[in-house]
């Protein structure tokens, strides 16, 4: 059976996924709310995230997120987050980049330019591959239909301008709900979606002959 590619994203209610972890994570366009997720973390979300991490056997990242992870997680192998750090350290890391970066983190590999071909090879090699953060790269995967499951943690805050997984210029697509997990004590909801391969359908609610 072919492996599956998951995209894991933390997002505000208005769809912003930029810099959830800290003020300096991504300051593009003078983003003012870096670290918006930090005050809203709780044990429910922590358990959901940990379950996903323990299930993966490969990590797929954009260059910027890789640099953030590589600067942090290898130094946490004996700390409070050692379980996550050791999982990340033990599995292969694949990086999408337009350049030729040096990848110093153990078992890290640069993907080739033919993304669809590279991901086909990864699906044959791995059972469950996760993309964490990496918003620009994740946009490409979504736009090209190169994913199997979208895991969205939606938080009850609105921040206005910021990077979104689904930009205003599309592309349009229909998704199917695969599951929804109860809100955490601080209001986050985990929604799991899969692509249908189709665009949204339209209709006319004023028609009298609509099925009831």
TrEMBL record:
<dbReference type="GO" id="GO:0009231">
    <property type="term" value="P:riboflavin biosynthetic process"/>
</dbReference>
<dbReference type="GO" id="GO:0008703">
    <property type="term" value="F:5-amino-6-(5-phosphoribosylamino)uracil reductase activity"/>
</dbReference>
<feature type="domain" description="Bacterial bifunctional deaminase-reductase C-terminal">
    <location>
        <begin position="7"/>
        <end position="184"/>
    </location>
</feature>
<dbReference type="Pfam" id="PF01872">
    <property type="entry name" value="RibD_C"/>
</dbReference>
<dbReference type="InterPro" id="IPR002734">
    <property type="entry name" value="RibDG_C"/>
</dbReference>
<dbReference type="InterPro" id="IPR024072">
    <property type="entry name" value="DHFR-like_dom_sf"/>
</dbReference>
<protein>
    <submittedName>
        <fullName>Deaminase</fullName>
    </submittedName>
</protein>
């Amino acid at each position: 059976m072919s492996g599956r590619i998951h995209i894991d994203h933390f997002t505000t209610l208005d769809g912003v996924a930029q810099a959830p972890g800290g003020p300096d994570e991504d300051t593009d366009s003078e983003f003012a709310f870096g670290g918006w997720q930090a005050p809203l973390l709780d044990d429910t979300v922590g358990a959901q995230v940990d379950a996903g991490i323990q299930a993966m056997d490969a990590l797929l990242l954009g260059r910027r997120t890789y640099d953030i992870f590589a600067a942090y997680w290898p130094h946490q192998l004996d700390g409070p987050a050692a379980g996550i750090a050791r999982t990340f350290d033990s599995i292969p890391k694949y990086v999408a980049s337009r350049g030729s970066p040096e990848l110093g983190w153990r078992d890290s590999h640069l993907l080739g330019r033919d993304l669809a071909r590279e991901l086909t090879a990864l699906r044959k090699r791995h059972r469950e591959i996760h993309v964490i953060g990496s918003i620009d790269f994740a946009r490409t995967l979504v736009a090209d239909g190169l994913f199997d499951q979208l895991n969205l943690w939606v938080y009850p805050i609105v921040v206005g301008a910021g990077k979104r997984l689904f930009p205003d210029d599309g592309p349009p697509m229909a998704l199917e709900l695969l599951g929804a997990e109860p809100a955490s004590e601080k209001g986050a909801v985990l929604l799991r979606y899969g692509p249908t391969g189709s665009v949204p359908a339209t209709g006319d609610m004023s028609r009298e002959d609509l099925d009831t």
